[in-house]
Amino acid sequence: MKPTIVLVGRPNVGKSTLFNRLTRTRDALVADLPGLTRDRHYGIGRVGERDYLVVDTAGFDPVAKVGIMHEMAQQAERAIEEADVLLFLVDGRTGLTPHDEQIAARLRRSGRPLYLVVNKAEGLRREVVAAEFHALGLGAPLAVSATHGDGVTQLVEEALASFPLDDEPAEEATRGPRIAIVGRPNVGKSTLINGLVGEERVIAFDLPGTTRDAIEIPFERGGRHYTLIDTAGLRRRGKVFEAVEKFSVIKTLQAVEQANVSVLVLDAAQDIADQDAHIAGFILEAGRALVVVVNKWDAVDDYRRELVKRDIERKLGFLSFARFHYVSALKGSGLSAVMKSVDAAYAAAMANLSTPRLTRVLQAAVTKQAPPRHGVFRPKLRYAHQGGSNPPIVVIHGSALEHIPTSYTRFLERTFIEAFRLKGTPLRIQFKTAHNPYASRD
């Protein structure tokens, strides 16, 4: 079993930078601002022949009792309970602070193996920059630079030295479908994830913008593996002011593109906004399978429910391929049905479509409704085959196909979706026109 290294420290000491260095990724959002990370962020690191888990945590305030800082501290506390090794990061350029002393007192009580890491030591003499941190009584401080990688390998090797090597062959983790949870701020995305996972895995707080990074959460349900991705709420472009929020938006859009299925969360207590339609449009443009969840259904009366359904039909009618669910993430009602639709959407997105059947469906569609003429010629659709998945791509071969109008393409898309029961995923059609050997002759 892989040992788990947990990074702990006050805000802005470089935990996320070290996380990215250890995992050799850019998964954790990094900026020169305190309090950027708010949830636990997991990754896999490797040193030599040894793999290990590494956990990034929010800036830790062990004495916080209320508000978002308390919620961040609770996330850090859960990570500490899971740790095999704790790396306590401090800032070598700022020096020792009372906040560091509070954290040291809490970590000392944890009983976990603990290493004091003095970060941001680039360009400085290590023994000098680490000197004042001896006062914490946590052993010899280890000076590193997470940004430049100085001393990081030696740090990890020392931290893992007491753990035996796993002789079993490494197995690739089975993560199953990747599911991005997206929507506007404060619609209940994090609450939905906590309800699905069955624990307070991410911070769910009544404050827009609580989630800033895209947090990947592997979990198992009904014997099947999934990876949920909690994302930052997407506001209208004109209301995105902070640099951090702009980075969060980018991470959210990347999460959608890298997912297999997107779950669009709407708020039943609010009107369906243009921004909801914009988010849905991006998911559709990315070609991702989709499930729509209308949250907080328990908080509205029958009159409001009817208004919401009419609003959805009017503003989100282009999502007719997706399944809609009306749930209460806080109470956990309706979540099992959501996961069944996610499974169905994933299966549809990854479906294998046989060439003979695709061609038969195509020929039946042309017989039912032939493409319109272009001048004296009518486009001829001869046969079809699958060109890709997630989303399914149907490649149609024939002649004069460049003249097929968009309306007829949509007719073919609906026909294939109905014939193959591809509920929950968009479908793309590509036309390949055969070369005419006589086109160049007079």
UniProtKB/TrEMBL annotation:
GO terms for molecular function: GTP binding; ribosome binding. Signal peptide: none annotated. Keywords: GTP-binding, Nucleotide-binding, Repeat, Ribosome biogenesis. The keyword Cell cycle does not apply. Residues 3-167, 177-350 form the EngA-type G domain. CDD domains: EngA1, EngA2. The keyword Aminoacyl-tRNA synthetase does not apply. GTP 2 binds at residues 183-190, 230-234, 295-298. Belongs to the TRAFAC class TrmE-Era-EngA-EngB-Septin-like GTPase superfamily. EngA (Der) GTPase family. This is GTPase Der. The gene is der.
